[in-house]
């Protein structure tokens, strides 16, 4: 019961109703006490009429009148004259006097609670205004025995009634909450579990009922939108996975074919035919670029890069190898130069093969960007050592990255740095650097050039 929404709502309802009844109980009991005392004053006033009708009454009649009125004596004040109308022996001294002519609510509540808390029988004096202007005031002396018992009986009846009201109200609210909230929520949870069993199945998407409370309708509509988006994303992911597998297989076979084709082209280059001599270099470059693309696709298609094997790497030598490889790829008609600013003694802690691949991808992107620039440009690699990391900067003086490339910089097939590019180079480079615990960031790009920064955290060199 405590673990269900309707059960907790039922318990809270009972508690709140009881609190409300307790707040009603105190003034109700105070009001009942006042009515009880006023009734005694009224009965005492009626009893005194017999004496007003006749100057003398028998003692037995006087005792019977006082007993029926529930008081010991009655005092009337008329025309400023105070007169003891009926009297009998008082068993104990007067304990307190209560004036009911114009009492405040606080005084009535205080006196009522004090009476309930005191179990002893007391003799009290009660003063009130006579009915129908029969005098200035009426005063009686009485015992509190009957008063306290009547107050307790009245209070118990109020508590019993409160319990019944709480039970009925709580039960009705329990049923209402189950019909309005609990059942729709349970139905929504059931839809979610049914959908979770096969999220790719579009038939399991919840259909908003269009009825019930507005909040539940909005929740169903939001759930339907979320499930629709998730189903579409899962379908797209499955299609991309299948496409990636197919592309990887095709790229693998295509790379082998292109490698064989390159061997044949190498032999063609030895031909003395002028036409062949002129076209062969372009064919070689095209095949080389195609091989590079297939290798990139295969590299990215692997589930993940292997963990780097960290070792001491002479950075200047590694950078020279990368630069030399890219320099050979520059065509004679392209005015592209390379600069290196790496301290000869600088050593970094990295996997030499993976760091080579990361730098090669950055330099290749820079070279390809400058290849389409009529004025050519310069590609530079600089390195420096900071307190916590080694910093490698790759810069070029090209036209800068296009807007789409900046928005999806390291996203494969979306962040291409040039028209027709796949964006795999930057994605692979970023993944390799992250494997070293470092970061690859685009520091600047614009009409004056582009600068990428690699930060490799320092560690103890082997």
Give helix % range. Answer: 55-70%
Query: Which consecutive residue ranges, at least 5 long each, have pLDDT under 50?
Result: none
State the secondary-structure class: alpha+beta
Strand-residue fraction? 15-25%
Determine the mean pLDDT: 80
Shape: rod-shaped
Give the helix tally: 10
Topology readout:
Blueprint: H1 5-53, H2 59-69, E1 73-78, E2 81-86, E3 94-99, H3 105-117, E4 123-128, E5 137-143, H4 145-197, H5 214-268, H6 274-301, E6 311-314, H7 315-329, E7 336-341, E8 347-350, H8 352-371, E9 377-385, E10 389-396, H9 403-407, H10 424-435, E11 439-446, E12 449-457
Parallel strand pairs: 3-4, 7-9
Antiparallel strand pairs: 1-2, 1-5, 4-5, 6-8, 9-10, 10-12, 11-12
Helix pairs in contact: 1-2, 1-3, 1-4, 4-5, 5-6, 6-10, 7-8, 8-10
Explain how this protein is built.
The protein has 10 helices and 12 strands. It has helices at 5-53, 59-69, 105-117, 145-197, 214-268, 274-301, 315-329, 352-371, 403-407, 424-435; strands at 73-78, 81-86, 94-99, 123-128, 137-143, 311-314, 336-341, 347-350, 377-385, 389-396, 439-446, 449-457. The longest helix has 55 residues, at 214-268. It is rod-shaped. The model has no long low-confidence stretch (mean pLDDT 80).
In short:
With 462 residues, this protein is of the alpha+beta class. Helices cover 56% and strands 17% of the residues. The chain is rod-shaped, with a radius of gyration of 50 Å.
